[in-house]
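Example with several molecule types.
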Amino acid sequence: GAGVSQTPSNKVTEKGKYVELRCDPISGHTALYWYRQSLGQGPEFLIYFQGTGAADDSGLPNDRFFAVRPEGSVSTLKIQRTERGDSAVYLCASSLGPESSYNEQFFGPGTRLTVL
Amino acid sequence: AQSVTQPDIHITVSEGASLELRCNYSYGATPYLFWYVQSPGQGLQLLLKYFSGDTLVQGIKGFEAEFKRSQSSFNLRKPSVHWSDAAEYFCAVVTAAGNKLTFGGGTRVLVKP
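Resulting structure tokens for the full complex:
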């Protein structure tokens, strides 16, 4: 079956612009996660959705970052007024839920964001 | 807060030689521990995981890892590496709530012919 997909695979933008990154989870997975991986570092948690609601957004670095999942499937990560420090690979993962116990997270290939 | 440390940023190993990657964690409760591999242009792939029970766990691609509570370690091993094992490896721990993964900084493995 299809895995987690993310579009675009690469995004180049200019400082100050707005960007949207899309994640299509594995069909039937109710939990969805966003992580950010800066160059030379491990992924860092941004936000976790259970269904349509953000169950944990403690990893979002500031209010320029926002994510939605209106129908409980596809999710969009939105970044306003991009800064050069936002350049990173943004990873999406999905898993079965609810999280009564740990369920394996399956990762997409990521979107590489470059802010010039 | 939980944290994961991978002391080795780079490791170079000859093809056919053994490999061991170190991972130390800091976590208040019994951890769930993972090793992921990331090849260039690829997503993160789960190699193996430890939840409880036998402290030596077997994974895919011939990898194994040993959980040592006394040392707060979860080191990854492979007896004989192949050129295709060249990649970046990440150790991770999951929180008590079971949702967000906390990753180490990664170890990049280079394989010499």
